[in-house]
Here is the input.
Amino acid sequence: MYAQMVKSEATQDDPEQLAAFQARIDAGEKIEPKDWMPEGYRKTLIRQIGQHAHSEIVGQLPEGNWITRAPTLERKAILLAKVQDEAGHGLYLYCAAETLGVSRDEMTEMLLDGRMKYSSIFNYPTLNWADIGAVGWLVDGAAIMNQVPLQRTSFGPYSRAMIRVCKEESFHQRQGYDAIRKMAEGTPEQKKMAQDALNRLWYPSLMMFGPSDKDSVHSAQSMAWKIKMNTNDELRQKFVDQTVPQAEYLGLTVPDPDLKWNEERGHYDYTDPDWSEFFEVIKGNGPCNTDRLAARNKAWDDGAWVRDGLLAHAKKKAGRQHAAE
Amino acid sequence: MNAPLAKEEAFLQFLLRMGDNTLILGHRVSEWCGHAPVLEEDIALANTALDMIGQTQMWLGLAAEVHGPGKSADDLAFLRDAWDFRNVLLVEVPNGDFGRTLMRQFLFDAWHSIQLGRLMKSSDERVAAIAEKASKEVAYHLERSADTVVGLGDGTEESHRRMQEALDYLWPYAGEMFQSDDVDAEMVKAGIAPDPASLREEYDVLVSRILNEATLTIPESRFAHKGGRTGAMHTEHLGHLLTQMQWLQRAYPGAKW
Ligand SMILES: [Fe+2]
Ligand SMILES: [Fe+2]
Ligand SMILES: [Fe+2]
Here is the structure.
């Protein structure tokens, strides 16, 4: 999930209006930008969609880290296409958030000064080429777990953005799995890279679903509003159940000695990630937080003259057209 | 006196020139990933790089075929050393700021679009087919890079200054694209490709029109750095680019990725 720990806003609206709004949601109707909505619904959605958009943007960095070192032309093309898709997801999501009355530039400023977050997963480094396969397989895989149900979310523009995004994410996941499979079946060194990638990315991927339900205080309202469709633990379990057999197929070992199939539950029992590490990453103390934000800030600051230049030109051009009319 | 070039050897050199240009420029552009001034540019730069890597697969794929059995496009991209590369120097110079990257793209796209237009009429069907496919992509690259050069040249004082600096730096690298040698003579004779020098007039008209619209001044000097497309002398930058690009293939020989 790219939106973790999205705090939902308390709402102080007219009870009758609220009840009518809730009835529309319960009836499965879509809420559109021009419809009345509780202030808390609007604010929570801005935070959630914004966090998702920022994740797509910051997510370009760990993958971009390997574009110039991709080992074949084909792999380089696949990775370029994926990163381009992710930037495109960022764009649709910012557009969806803009319908709620916040501009992309405002959201960008909030990302850059740390007021808004992005998924903790992108604060982990990509250290060998197998990480690129593992990111597609695990990170896009975890994102899909969360985003498929969100195609049915109550807010129309968000739901439509998710429908477009999900198609591409499943494609990314298959390509990622294919890339890591090539390595798991390759030379001993390649297999070592694949195992190393899984060792480092397994728990951070589990963290993508957010804290354990018992510590997740914001869920109930968001679930009632259908902007959160499942609990964190439900999705995490689903992810583990799906991913473990895939790892076995690759001949890779999930770095959890206590992982085992529980016949009675019909699910794998697994070890939770180290939540103290998760909260450190969220606070800014992950391995890459500082560098990621610095890279985004530098891109934005270095690009100021370009944005200003293009804007100035557009104004001049409009002025000249106006004068000619 | 050099011995006359065998046609096959000349054809291989020609294909390497085409494929190395797109490979090296595609690589340079891909370095921008995640660092562009605005999200739309991140998308556009990734898209441009992707197109150029796709074109590389076609040109170097054909080069590998011509080269003979047991070679692949990947072998050519990842296992040759700098002196075997045949790209023009223009595409290997570092990105610099966004302005220099887009100016370099424009100076290249303008040549590339004219070149591909001619290659669509090549006597070699394979060359004509690649050119046909690539020319659609490159028409779009040119439209975008030209628009950006105009927008930034005729933007703010700062953007104008930066674009003029970019042009001043890059202009001495433009001339190499029009220098003809034995390889080109052989290609002209076979009807495979045009004489590079014959593209210059059309190029100058196109480039002057856009740079004029961008309120930029083309440097007086016609001096041209050379050595890339013949392989005689690359810049210091190419070796570093290859170090990064070829690292995995070099470190793990024979592995399949
Ligand atoms: Fe995405
Ligand atoms: Fe993603
Ligand atoms: Fe994705």
